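Bump. Still looking for Glutaredoxin structure tokens.
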Amino acid sequence: MKPVLIYTSVTCGYCMRAKQLLQRKGVAFDEISVDGKPDVRAEMVRKAGKTSVPQIWIGSTHVGGCDDLHALERAGKLDALLAD
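Sorry for the wait, here they are.
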């Protein structure tokens, strides 16, 4: 399985939903909190081109946010993206 990275904030409902989907699928992920860390948030913005959380990467592919992750799941494309 490809590595999954997710930038989050503790109070973000979308972050919680994205993590719940990954957990239901048994997907391990690395989580980076941007709370109180302007340098980490700036790094996320530089990499993603977006300021909102969550921002999710599967391998080297930037998935986007929670809605994008769920759309991949609904389309039946998430498992293929996660596969090695």
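The first helix runs from residue 13 to 24.

Edit: fixed formatting.
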